[in-house]
Write the C-alpha cells for this entry.
Amino acid sequence: MSGGKLEIVRAGALTTIQDLGRFGHAHVGVPRSGALDQPAHRLANRLVGNPTDAATLETTLTGVALRATRPVTVVVTGAPAPVRIDGRPAAWACPVDLPAGAVLDVGTATTGLRSYVAIGGGIAVEPVLGSRSTDLLSGLGPARLGDGDTLPLGTAVGRPVHADTVHWHQPPRELVLPVLLGPRDDWFAAAAVRTLATARFSVSAHSNRIALRMEGPTLERAVHRELPSEGTLPGAVQVPTDGKPVVFLADCPTTGGYPVIGVVPEHGLAAAAQAVPGLPVRFAPIRRRR
C-alpha cells in the first residue's frame, strides 16, 4: 500500500529521522550522520520488511507518539520501552499492525537511551545528498520533529518478519570502549595513556548525537603547541583543553583542532548510542603496530 501520512502526536525529548547516513561528502565538510545505534535501526527495518536503508524514527529517552492515516505495520527496537496502541499494551521488538487513526505510543526507555520506530514502507521525506537523516550539527536533512508534524509514508515492498528470537544486546551497565591508539597519542604524557587504560570515567549529561562527553580524570598532554585542523570521524577520541576525552558520534564535525588520542572502532559505537548520563565508562587501548 502506498501513500498516507504519519502525524507526530508527541515528539518527546528529541526525535529525528535517521537512515544509514550521508556518505562521501566529508571532503566538503558534511558529517556522516545516520542512526547512532545502527544494529537497532537495521533490525527494525528488517522486522517490518523494509530495506535496511529505509528511514526510521530515532527517539531519545522519552519516546514518541504517532498516528498514521492508513493501516501500517510498525516495530520498536533499540532501548526497551513500553509500547501501547490506543492505550493497550503492544509488543516491543515485534511487528504489530497499527490501524488507521490509532495512536502508537512509545514510552520512556526502561534501559538505554534511544529507541527506533520503523514503519512498513519507511518515511518518504526527500533525501538530501543521498540521505534522509537529520544532521543536528550542520542542519542538513529534515528538522528535529515537533508535535503536530506530518511526514509522508513510503510504499511497503516487503512482508513483516515474525522472528521466534531476536538477537539484541542489552544496554550495558558499564560501557567498555576499545580504542585503537593514535594518530596523536604521542602528544600525551605516558601517564595520560595509563590513565585512559585504567581509570573509570562516566558519561556527561552534556552528551548528544555529536559526541559522548566524559566526566572523570584529565589526560595530560606532553605537546602543548597548536595543532592544525585534521580530519575526524565517528569514534575519534578527541581531548580538548580541559583534558577530558570526547568520543565523536555520527553528527561529529569532519575536522578538529584538538589531538585525537585514539579511535573507537565502529562496532563499539552502537553501545555508546545507548549510554545514559552517569553510566560508568572504561577504555581498553590497543596499540598500533609500528
Remarks:
- The mean pLDDT is 94.
